[in-house]
Amino acid sequence: MSEVPQTDVSRPSALPTAHLLQRPSASQILVEQNSAEYLDTIEEEWNKKIDMEVETLVDGMVDLVSLASIGDKDKFRIAQEAFQAQSRAESMVRAANSLVSITHSMKLLLLLSDEAQIAHRRDAELKVVQTEREETRTKVASLLDELLRHPRTATGSQSEQISGENQTR
Q: Which InterPro entries match (predicted)?
C-alpha cells in the first residue's frame, strides 16, 4: 500500500529555462522607442493598411472591366465570368468597408487626441511661419532699397549726360 498510484494526469514541474534565439517581443520594442518613433511606426502601419485596401479596390475594378468583354460566349464561360465578377465585387465591398472603418477610426483618434499637443504643434508652426515672414519681409525691403537706389544713380548720371548734351548744342 505504500505504492503511489500511477495515472495519466500530468504533474506540473518547473521546466528549465532556455535563452536560445530569443527575440525581443513587440512590447519590448515599443517600450524602447520614444514617442515620435512610436507615432511614426503607427502612421506607417495605417498607411500600409490603406494602401493595401486601395490596391484591392483598383485590382478589382481592373478585373471587372476585363471580365466585361463582349463576344461569343457559351453558358459555361458566362457562368464562370459571373462567378468571378461576384467574388471580385465581394472583395471590393470588404475593402471599401475596411476603408470606411479606417476612416472612422482616424476621425475618432483626431477627436479624442490630446488637444494640448495639437495646440502646441499649431503654435510652433505659427512661430516658424512668423519667423519666415519677418525674414522674407527684411529681404524684400533690402532688395527693394537696392532696386530703388540703382535707378537713381543711373537716372542721375543720365540726367547729367542729357544736361551736358544740351549745353553743347
A: DUF3140 (IPR021487), Med22 (IPR009332)
Write out the three cell numbers for 155: 537716372
In sequence order, what are the residues at sequence separation of 6 or more whose Cβ sits closer than 8 angstroms to the Cβ of residue 6? none
Report pLDDT digits (tens) over 95-105.
Answer: 999 999 999 98
Each domain of the chain, given as residue ranges in start order, spans 36-146
Q: CA-to-CA distance for 147 and 37, rounded, in angstroms?
A: 48
Beta-carbon contacts of 106 under 8 Å, excluding residues fewer than 6 positions away, are 46
Q: Measuring CA to CA, how many Å separate 150 from each of 123, 141, 156? A: 41, 14, 10
Count of other CB atoms within 10 angstroms of residue 166 = 8
pLDDT, tens digit, for every residue of 21-53?
555 555 555 556 677 788 788 889 989 999 999
Buried b or exposed e, range 50-77, using 16+ CB within 10 angstroms: eeebeebbeebeebeeeeeeeeeeeeee
CB 92 within 8 A of CB 60: yes
